[in-house]
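FAQ
Q: What does a multi-component entry look like?
A: The components come first, one per line:
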Amino acid sequence: MRKPAEVLPLLQQLQTSSGVDLVTKEEAVLAAYEQAQSSKGSIFVKVLTIAGGIFSMALLIAFLALADAFNTSGSMILIGSILTGLGLVAGLKMKHLMLDTISVTLFIAGLIILTVGLGWEQPSVTGVCLILLIIGCISLVLAGNYVLAFVAVLVVLGALYVLPMSGYLHLLLQGIIAWGYTLFLLHESNLVKLHPKMTILYHPIRLGLICTLLGIYFYEWVYLQFGTYQYVYAYFPYGSLLVIAAILYASVPVVRRTGITSKHLPWIIIVCWGLLLSPVVFAPDILCALLILLVSFSVRDNSGLVLGIAGLVFYVGKYYYDLQVSLLTKSILLVIPGIIFGALYFVLTKYFENDEKI
Amino acid sequence: MSTPNREDLHLIGRITELPAESIQQALEEHVYRDKQEWRRFLPIFFLSLGIGFTVAGILFFFAYNWASLHKFVRIGLIEGLLVIATLAVLLSKLSPLVRKLILTGAAVLVGVLLAVFGQVYQTGADAYDLFLAWTLAIALWVAVAHFAPLWLLFILLCNITYYLYSLQTGAYGIELQRTTVLFLINLLFAVAGILLEHGKEAWRLSNWSVRIVTLAAAGWGTFSGILACTDDPTAGALVLFLGTFYPACAVGIWLGLQRRQLFYLCILPFSLIIQIAAWLLAQSSDTAMVLMVLIFVVASTCLLVWWLINLQKKYTHEKTC
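Then the predicted structure of the entire assembly, as tokens:
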């Protein structure tokens, strides 16, 4: 966090580069830093808040169950709605990390009870998903802290994904979420100026998009293991093509930043990159993990980078595990990309060394 | 002059009239990865993928041919890899980090070798024998390499060895006794890690590794506390737990206050909150008690967070003055 003495030089530096008068707003900026500091805690305190919230949520649900509050779907919907609303209000009004435990507990417990009640009352999955989608959108707009906003993003994207739709639309949705993530991170400055609340929602939405992108494929893998929905291989890979397009779009500023000055080389790299990704067109999970890794590294999002690497390792392993071929064929299918990547390493190292010498 | 980070640009962008283009320019200049970082990352990324895929391909090739390989070839292959790895560590001119990573890989291969040995000769040994042999075989490497991931592997093996020993030999039939000993094993390593911080720089372990081991110790300690309330333990097991965990907890909290490390002040009091909640629920699990426990957990967590935030502000203020 900034010391007060560092704020003025910072404003002067940005004023010089932008030509906009910032120094006169020094007091307002200092007040904003102080307010941010008061609501900021170390990572351990945040994890403690979440752990306490989850423990409390389990106890709250246990208490309500023992008190026979869940005898009817109507009571569950009522209690769930009240708790969700109270959680949102608590998050809005009580802007202190200490009280986040209460708002998180009420919000998550309320959502769980509400979802179960709705499912009981309204067996139609579409109806439940649409209601949760509306609640998630309202919660995202009203959310006053990081955890509530993060949970709201997961509710919105999760409800959208679970909404019954054809295989084509499901695949397209994956691609749309991937594009949403890419544009969200690469156009950060436009989002900051869109609305003051975006600076609070930026990190939870970013993390929510990453968790959804990686989580939907994990969900599908578990579902496919135990279900029969084989759409991934039955339909044209619209979603994967959209993800490949997002990767290529995200690669353009990367190629620019590596300092490759040749006119045609960047386009050659982009085309080669696209061709390299084509063998995994039926593995959108690997493509999404690669996208997350690329974009997270580019914008210096370390948590996204770690999740991207973990996702890439997991989904590549899953890809080869699920391949219905002999061990010898798998061995060949592993060594060939290994050699290609090794060759790319040498080509890049050579190019950068020559470029440095020049 | 300090450069603006992401939080600065978000805050200033929100409060002032700084346009989006200037924010984007500042992000690209001061926050986003620059040319040098990309030029370091891309080769390492492709090299890691290349090595990972090639090694996996080779492993799959051997897996395909495994059944038809002679037993000497099977054992010889792994021993050969081990020898090559250790020679690379001893004689190569690679950076110390790469050599330590190779040694970690070699330490994993020791376990693979023992497993293959057991598979080939069908020794019929207990599983804990394998882990015990593995632990002892790599102990010298762990002590000499002084590499945090290797230490964590060693500690993990110690935990698994003891756990399997107690299950398979029935030496400690009481669950509380088993979990308390696991707590003590991890506590020993955590204390060693903390004490080494005062030693020579070369002997110090990274903060994150000491914290992982402390977390493991706290985890086993918390689980033991829950068992002490719920499992009707023997007097001996209870005395062992009470005589070790709570004094260690008190020392840990004192240490956290002395060193101004919020990590210990977070996990240890939270462990106590969980144990008190478990004790209350063990007395009665009717509706009124669950409500009381809920209020206790929420209130105590809030108070703990409030105390920690105030401590953090105090430490930050003392640092800036």
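Q: Is there any commentary attached?
A: Sometimes. For this entry: Chain A has a mean pLDDT of 83.
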